[in-house]
Amino acid sequence: MPRYRLKFSKDGPARYSSHLDMVRFFDRSTRRAGLPVAFSEGFNPHPKFSFAAPLPVGVGGLEEYMDMDLKEYMEPAEIAHRLDPNLPEGYKILSVKQVPDHAPALMAQLARAAYRATATLPTGYSEVELNTAIDHLMKLEEITVIREAKGKRKEVNIRPGIFSLTGGVKGHILEVTMELLIGSTGNVRPEEVLSRLSGAGGVPLESEDFRIRRTALFAQGNAGPVPLWEV
Amino acid sequence: MNKLEKVLARVQKPSRYAGGEWNAVKKDWDQADVKMAFAFPDVYEVGMSHLGLQILYHIVNKRKDALMERVFAPWTDMEEQLRKENILLFSLESQRPLVDFDILGFTLQYEMSFSNILNMLDLAGLPVRSEDRNNTMPLIIAGGPCAFNPEPIADFIDLFVIGEGEEIIQELIQAYKELKQKGADRREMLWQFAKNIPGIYVPSLYEVQYRADNTVASVMPVKEGVPAKIGKRIVRDFDNADFPTNPIVPSMGVVHDRIMVEVLRGCTRGCRFCQAGVLYRPVREKKPETLVRQVAEMISNTGHDEISLTSLSTADYTGVAPLVKNLLDLYGERGVNVSLPSLRLDAFSIDLAKEVQKVRKSGLTFAPEAGTQRLRDVINKNVTEENLVDAVTSAFKNGWSSVKLYFMIGLPTETYEDLDGIAAMAKKVVQIGYECGVPRGRLKVTVSTSSFVPKSHTAFQWEPQNTLQELKDKQKYLKEKLRDKRISYNWHDPETGFLEAVFAKGDRRLGKVLESAWTKGARFDGWSEHFDYALWLEAFEEEKIDPKWYAYRKINHEEILPWDHIEAGVGKKFLIREHKKAVAGQPTVDCRSGQCPGCGLCPTLEIKPSILGGAEIAPIQAEV
Fold first, then answer.
1. Which residues on B lie below 8 Å from A31 (Cβ)?
2. B241 belongs to a structural domain
3. B19 contacts in A (CB within 8 Å)?
4. What is the DSSP letter of B98?
5. Which CATH number fits domain A110-221: 3.90.25, 1.10.10, 3.30.70, 2.115.10?
6. A63-115: per-residue pLDDT in tens?
7. What is the ipTM of this complex?
8. What confidence category does residue B359 fall into, taking pLDDT thresholds of 50, 70 and 90?
9. DSSP string, B7-69
């Protein structure tokens, strides 16, 4: 069965829906679009979709990825053309291409994600102050965060998973960009970095004040990260 | 990031408040003369499962001169955030505060949502009491089944719409627009609506007098031209009634997440406890070709993978078997399922269930309602034990292994023999399961009981409810009787049902209790995790109102009822006769049989049931 890779964005009101809801949106959107989606066998058939990485609720995604199996061949441009107008507000299909039928799962190739977080500053705060805070954070050998899973608290050192962290201040707008570890070897969440900057880091904001967007996803290439689309 | 975005980052399930769903309509605000908001006094997941919302949303937004947006009760975490950040309750589509709208319309689906109405008004920045609102504020209107006894919330709602909304909403918008252009103020508008639009009840234009014994002495209009009695509205041509084939597709999992196509309205069965059976009379069926067309449009407009054929009693639809087959032939291949919300207790229904559940054999639910033939005759639930035996035999033989039986306890005339009947029925079903060869480990019978709540406009409106202690004793008795590892027994705490009865049969004096309970923090009373019975009792005590008087009193047929001025079309004489027949254990015919039971609705409303296949019923003249 032909497999297609779709690059799409999810922002606006759509960023508030969970990953599970998004899977359901794609099921309905493909049905409205009349795409011949392949379904799994069994008592409870589900569409053959596979996504690169779930987005946290509230975080927008500017370049997200999914694979989709169809029952029959269709021009990639035709898929985009049919699907895009059938997606709810906030979704946009950016690109579609065919990949080998048994192309390895997106999730298995994923290594790094880029984020941009912006917030409005309530008080004066300079770019110099921000960069000092960032430098200080990046110089640490260990940044420990506490995660809770299934009622258990666990300490995790996220420092090795922060590949880059930069920031700027323009007027009242503060912007932080970062590249973080994602995928099968571990995850660093953007809020974890932001709360460290705003807490001990001295940035006069809370992590929930930031509007966060995931701007790109990367795979690990031989000579460093490559955009997931180019794998 | 604005205040709202910040708040959405802090709450659970923010998509409840974000809007942007497929088929949601965002109109140009300035182009609409009349701006309405549909307010559902419960969470998004419940409200978005309500077909009435989709129908009215579609009708209003089809108009060039009007718009309708939606708002749901914010969950408690969102309420906390809205209050903390001083954000006024807003609509999903344009995220405008509700105060910017002309009309705010609440749907009254169940009594336990009343506290949420007050809370939503308050969160919108509006005074909860009608008399405290001024010309700059939206009109607060309400409709739905609980509008048939509007008195307990009459202090808070400016105008009630009685009966079906499809046509009256058009008249209301038109009249509002004209009066607004003329510069009419709020009072003038309400008066004009009450005078000129049948089915509109403006409670402030009526005065209620009470007798020394606390019963109602009279409900009289206080202004010229206002009708003394308000009759319900009905859609005459149901087949051609405006029906949305492009419903909003929810942005998150909701209670009924599927295509809902209404195959018929009304129910002819005449169960004496059932309020919906009275309110939605007469029965009207849609033509199969209309349904097939609507389903086709809905599938391509929504992308849903399930079609639910909804109504009060879908198995009664004249052409239900061919319709189901037709839909499965058309869409089964594409992975679209058909479901029926309710089944009759007979082998025919099992055949239908077999059709629609070709692959998955989930449990089947039957509702015998009462455990003995005597009591089933009292409530006019015309099913026999033989029907049950046939139905479950057929179900077990066709591969089902779990059956759920639904009963009511506390019904009028009930004795412990009737409870024994429930237990005996459950055991009999287990026995049939074995005989039909259902594997021992898989056989499961679930008995579920709810407590009877007397409702207005029914034959049981004069009946007292069982006390909490009586109901708890009955539950305990059944728990003992149903001690069997193949039977599981579910029941509800009866306190909610008690308050439901108080408000279902209440009068205007309950308004202050509701307000007091809300002030004390009553919210989401239909949700067990939020329902606080002690708080309600405190409110009753402070307002010196005895809730037991409303729920536990046996009412005389001669007494004026607080809702007598709201007419559902079924005559009070008929209900009295039904009540007497109930106590005598006499059944009444189903009007689908071709015989007319004489409820008086058809002559009163000048309508006839429209049942496909030509079942003609000559209605008996109404008795006055």
1. 299, 303-305, 334
2. no
3. 13, 89
4. G
5. 3.30.70
6. 999 999 999 999 999 999 999 999 999 999 999 999 999 888 999 999 999 99
7. 0.89
8. very low
9. HHHHSSSTHHHH---BT-----GGG-SEEEEEEESS-HHHHTT-HHHHHHHHHHHHSTTEEEE
